[in-house]
Amino acid sequence: MLYVFIALNVVRLISVVSLILVFASNIDTLVHDILAVNKYLTGGNGSDSATSTTISQVDVSYDYIMDSTIPIQPGGSFWAVLNRLLIMGQTIVLLLYEFGWPSVFFERFFPILGKEFWPRHSRPDGMSVRLSFFRFLDLESSNSTY
Q1: How far is CA 97 from CA 11, 40, 132, 142, in A?
Q2: In a domain, 28, yes or no
Q3: Residue 41 forms part of a structural domain
Q4: What does the pLDDT read at residue 111?
């Protein structure tokens, strides 16, 4: 049983580290995208002002702004930034869930992340058991049927 406890905590640690990496990479991508848009709006090549070109002179044969994930279309930069901000918001919510704070918030607004979402089922010996994704790790229930 101790090995299961340690294994689940390792999985939880990997989950927290990966969420932090997703958050950090989204910030990095957001910064690079904004810098690329600024470069695109000031002339596209980032050289001195004597040889820089205007937006109308920039070759628009590309689908995306050079060195970014932003499409060249009306509202492209807005939707790209909004996408990054929404992903960062999701990672914050999932990090809070990993630490169990605030559980009342999850019970009310995100029921699938709450404690009461998964229904209880009775076993033949009268004990109730929660269904979970990690049921195969439950050593006590390996001999009984549901």
Answers
A1: 14, 39, 16, 28
A2: yes
A3: no
A4: 80
